[in-house]
Design goal:
The chain has 561 residues and is mainly β. It has five domains: 106 residues; 106 residues; 106 residues; 105 residues; 104 residues. The model has no long low-confidence stretch (mean pLDDT 95).
Length: 561
């Protein structure tokens, strides 16, 4: 009897595992698998990877190829690793088929299980690192991207921490992360993270530490944001200021310093011209506000505040603020404009006081301080005390050549004027107060012209006559001239309205006048002492209109009935 013993395919036994991995985007490979092929038979062989239903996911031909498979890429689930031997032609041994349905002379080994657990995964963020200067200017990150290919978790948030993990912010979206102003956090280092989590977690809140969050939670890699503390002068406010250069001190006021973001061991204030040339370095704001900008003349100044560390070069008078080197920062500037305006300067001398006595009286010793004077044109002006222009001598020499005695008693004012272009009203007979245009008057010097005449006192009368054709003469009039003064004299007879009816030069001639001839009415007899140049002293003029240096006595009335 013949006994035939057929050799059938036998895959042997595989050892290793089981394996368990987290699906987290990190490659997961099996290792340490061995094959006991002592009883294995079959001219064909392969390794097979299936899911837990036997569906063929891969057919790595060698153990080496098997151990190169990344199981993380398959996602969550269960894989089975098998070894197969077969003889001849078999069907169904291909990707997408089921290992349970392979037909032919074929044998599968035992299986090794590979469990792939789906865990919370925050994915990967990219962008940065970022580096900003803390200088009061807003600093936002941009260009951050999230690779969430392998991310998993029902909930998500972004987290901003310090470099110790302390939670500073929890912006829910990337847009809100990119809206955070990191300058406001001051100097230091921040970390930006993305987090995914399931269910409830503990410690995911402001003021807690991200390293201590508990629960089904995962943090991405961080992106670093470095915030460098740099010298910062802060911000100054006030002005701008505008002054007229006119010899009157001009000081700024109301300047304030916002030093909320200021940083630097040392500080000073700086005043420059509009090109940055350093004109002054007042150490305090009080000293800035004590500077007289009028003294700098016309132009533009800039006021700055500066903070600096250590030694800086070029921070000194006469240098340029734009060329200062070192750890140094300038604030914004405040502008001070100094306008050059017409300015007559200041005149000194006098006051002068003269007696109107027929002797020429001239001023002398007048000086002009033109240090701050400005204007293309100039003249001297002489006015009365109401501002009416009496003369326009073009030079000081001509002012000192004016004979003020000739003007008669009164008060004159001497002025100096500077002006640009055309002015209106600067002419004889006009009033200096009404001059219009780009024009300035100096202070005035007073010239007082005193009239030192005195007529004495008359006594006698009054007289009353009857108009009857008989001559009527006054008599017994007396003149007390003990205090009389004045080089010239005359007697005056007027009517009761002041009209001059006669100018008898002597008392004897007064007493020779026949008042009867004048008809009925009232006459007045006066005595007059005067200086040369009196106007209006003539027959038929009115004594009330006399002009010049003169004095009238009391009157004696003569009534003609």
């Amino acid at each position: 009897m013949t006994v035939v013993r057929n050799q059938v395919a036998n895959s042997g036994v595989i050892v290793g595992g089981p394996f368990e991995f987290d699906v987290d985007g990190e490659a997961d490979m099996v290792s340490g698998i061995t094959l006991d092929d002592t009883n294995a038979f079959g001219s064909g062989s392969t390794w097979i990877v299936t899911d837990d239903q036997g569906n063929i996911l891969g057919l790595p031909p060698t153990l080496t190829a098997l151990e190169g498979v990344d199981f993380d890429g398959a996602g969550a689930g269960v894989c089975l690793i098998w070894y197969a031997r077969y003889e001849g032609t078999i069907s169904g041994l291909e990707m997408g088929m089921n290992a349970n349905d392979v037909s032919g002379d074929f044998d599968l080994s035992n299986a090794i299980t590979v469990v792939r657990n789906q865990v919370v995964n925050a994915g990967t963020i990219s962008g940065g690192p970022f580096e900003f200067d803390v200088d009061g200017e807003a600093d936002m990150v941009s260009g951050i991207t999230l690779d969430d290919t392998n991310a998993f978790g029902d909930n998500s948030t972004w987290i901003i921490t310090d470099d110790q993990g302390n939670i500073l912010g929890l912006p829910p979206t990337l847009a809100m992360v990119e809206g955070v102003d990191f300058d406001g956090a001051g100097a230091g280092t921040c970390l930006i993270w993305y987090a995914r989590y399931n269910g409830s977690v503990t410690g995911l809140e402001m003021g807690m530490n991200a390293n201590n969050v508990t629960g089904d939670f995962d943090l991405s890699n961080p992106i670093t944001v470095v915030r460098n503390q740099v010298v910062n002068a802060g911000t100054i406010s006030g002005g701008p200021f505008e002054f007229d250069v006119d010899g009157t001190p001009d000081m700024v006021s109301g300047i304030t310093l916002d030093d909320a973001n200021a940083f630097g061991d040392n500080s000073t204030w700086i005043i420059t011209d509009d090109l940055g040339n350093i004109l002054g370095l007042p150490p305090t704001l009080a000293m800035v506000e004590g500077v007289d900008f009028d003294g700098a003349g016309a132009g533009t100044c800039l006021i700055w505040y500066v903070r600096y560390n250590g030694s800086v070069t070029g921070l000194e008078m006469g240098m340029n603020a734009n060329n200062v080197t070192g750890d140094f920062d300038l604030s914004n500037p405040i502008t001070v404009v100094r306008n050059q305006v017409v300015n007559a300067g200041t005149i000194s001398g006098g006051p002068f006081e003269f007696d109107v006595d027929g002797t020429p009286d001239m001023v002398s010793g007048i000086t002009l301080d033109g240090t701050n004077a400005f204007g293309d044109n100039s003249t001297w002006i002489i006015t009365d005390d109401q501002g009416n222009i009496l003369g326009l001598p073009p030079t000081l020499a001509m002012v000192e050549g004016v004979d003020f005695d000739a003007a008669g008693p009164g008060v004159c004012l001497i002025w100096y004027a500077r002006y640009n272009g055309m002015v209106t009203g600067l002419e004889m007979g006009m009033n200096a107060n009404d001059v219009t245009g780009m024009f300035d008057l100096s202070n005035s010097i007073t010239v007082t012209r005193n009239c030192n005449t005195s007529p004495g006192v008359l006594s006698g009368g009054p007289f009353t006559f009857t108009v009857d054709g008989t001559p009527d003469m006054v008599s017994g009039i007396m003149l007390d001239s003990s205090n009389a003064a004045g080089p010239n004299s005359t007697w005056i007879i007027t009517d009761d309205q002041g009209k001059i009816l006669g100018l008898p030069p002597t008392l004897a001639m007064v007493e020779g006048v026949d008042f009867n001839a004048a008809g009925a009415g009232v006459c007045f007899i006066w005595y007059l002492r005067y200086e040369d140049g009196v106007e209006g002293l003539a027959m038929d003029m009115n004594a009330n209109d006399l002009k010049g240096c003169f004095s009238l006595s009391n009157a004696i009335q003569v009534t003609r009935q």
